[in-house]
Design goal:
By secondary structure, the protein is mostly beta strands. It contains 1 helix and 13 strands, in the order αβββββββββββββ. The relative contact order is 0.16.
């Protein structure tokens, strides 16, 4: 089992986040900026509860480089029993040789108690290309090699090389409203029947210059979930989360 200190570190990392400047945007803002989101989550899958969800992001953009810290944290209990407890922290570095092409390296660490994952480590690197760049919308595509190592609650471990193909769309609908969408497909390089799918759609509306409302839907699918060695019971393949809450920009 991971320690309380590990969970505390991950919870702190979860106050940082992923959005930030998208590759290929014209005249990107430089310096640090970001936001933190606090919301109510309804989940279905490994856990069906009402719980606390915290996400955030911090991005430092330079002329041709970007550093991103991001993460999320979810915890819930029902009738005195903890039913959800998961967190992930990530760090990423991007380099932009031109306006459309970029290369990146990233790493992540996290845990997911309902899914039986005590610790997941997932470093990776890849290339990306901005298919669409405009004043109101951007569309990025990425191809990445990622090594994923999972340590499970029964003491077993699993590690494999995954190939991730992803796309990321952002649309500034109005000055105060924006829509973002992400989809990732990660097959195991040694077994294509073993794959991960991640998708998310989020809508944010600013109330003031630093405060807004955010609604998001996130779906995570694992074709080969953890199977308890003692009981032989497999965890759910699909986790679906609906999140509503406040977003604070800084």
């Amino acid at each position: 089992m991971h320690t309380t200190d590990t969970r505390a570190v991950l919870a702190v990392l979860a106050l940082l986040a992923v959005p930030g400047c998208l590759p290929g945007q014209e005249e990107p803002e430089t310096g640090w900026r970001g936001n933190a989101d606090f919301g109510l989550t309804i989940t279905q899958g490994n856990s069906e509860t009402t719980n606390l969800a915290i996400t955030g992001h911090s991005v430092h953009r330079m002329e041709r480089q970007r550093v991103t810290l991001d993460g999320n944290f979810i915890r819930a209990s029902a009738e005195g029993v903890r039913t959800a407890n998961k967190a992930e922290g990530r760090a990423r570095y991007d380099f932009f040789p031109n306006d459309r092409f970029f290369v990146f390296a990233r790493t992540g660490v996290g845990f997911d108690e309902p899914a039986g994952i005590d610790l997941r480590v997932s470093p990776g690197a890849g290339v990306g290309y901005t298919v669409l760049q405009g004043a109101a919308a951007t569309l990025d595509t990425q191809l990445e090699g990622r090594w994923i190592r999972d340590s499970f609650e029964d003491g077993t471990t699993d590690q494999d090389l995954f190939v991730t193909a992803s796309e990321n769309f952002a649309w500034q609908i109005t000055e105060t409203t924006d829509l973002t969408q992400l989809f990732e497909y990660s097959p195991n390089s040694a077994d294509l029947s073993d794959f991960l799918l991640n998708g998310e759609v989020a809508l944010s509306v600013l109330i003031t210059s630093g405060l807004g409302l955010k609604v998001s839907v996130r779906d995570e699918y694992n074709s080969e979930p953890f199977v308890d060695a003692d009981t032989g019971v497999a965890r759910e393949k699909n986790d679906l989360a609906f999140v509503t809450g406040l977003t604070v920009q800084f």
